[in-house]
Specification:
four-stranded antiparallel beta sheet; Umud Fragment, subunit A; 4 helices
């Protein structure tokens, strides 16, 4: 029987504990929830740069229940602004060109999310719905969308985007930033695949005077 030096055994036990803790932390971050820092201006004034949020991953990894008005994060499309030269208006979907091929690339990109860019926007159009932007408003199936989460007087224009009159394909979402005059969103890149959604914003924990659920 091999005797192990108590000091070596203690080191091994600590290494195992650290590895297990890291694995559990990564699993929790990927499947349950994670904090994040708002770095974009596209959701002003609902979310400001520097706001710190808790994201709900459970909604996308397990139960998949997303609804209109939810604020979500998702993988940014490869092409942020489509042009007439490379757009198919009969298929109004965002382009995702990056497809990791081996397990390490997939793990690094999708699980660790290294070198991955994410956007934060609000769900506006659901699969099968007709979305139209006209008269500075959003119409869903011909009816003006009530957006009481926006400050009074906010206008929704095309912002030069090509996707302003479309039917959202099955398996996709039409998203907009609350900063309608300064957001690159589905007007510019098209509808995003539901399977590219990463999380739903659960609540804001910083600054403290805005602590609570985000609407």
């Amino acid at each position: 029987m091999i005797k192990v030096d108590p000091k070596v055994k203690n080191v091994i036990e600590w290494i195992i504990c650290i590895i297990v803790a890291v694995i559990l932390a990564l699993l929790f971050r990927h499947f349950i929830g994670t904090p994040t820092l708002v770095q974009q201006t596209s959701m002003q004034t609902t979310l400001m740069q520097g706001d710190r949020l808790i994201l709900n991953r459970w909604v996308t990894t397990v139960n998949g229940k997303l609804k209109r008005g939810d604020i979500i994060t998702f993988e940014a499309p490869s092409e942020k602004n489509r042009t007439l030269a490379n757009v198919d208006l009969n298929n109004p979907v965002a382009i995702y060109d990056y497809n990791p091929t081996n397990w390490w690339e997939k793990f690094n990109y999708y699980f660790l999310e290294r070198n991955k860019i994410s956007f934060i926007k609000r769900i506006i159009g659901l699969p099968g719905e007709h979305v139209e932007i006209k008269d500075d408003k959003v119409y869903i199936n011909g009816e003006v969308l009530n957006e009481d989460y926006l400050p009074s007087g906010v206008k929704t224009g095309s912002l030069g985007g090509l996707y302003t009159n479309l039917v959202v394909p099955e398996g996709y979402l039409f998203v907009l930033g609350d900063n309608r005059g300064g957001s690159t969103d589905s007007r510019a890149f098209g509808c995003i695949p539901i399977n590219k959604v990463e999380s739903k914003v659960l609540f804001r924990f910083w600054p403290l005077n805005k602590f609570g659920k985000v609407n």
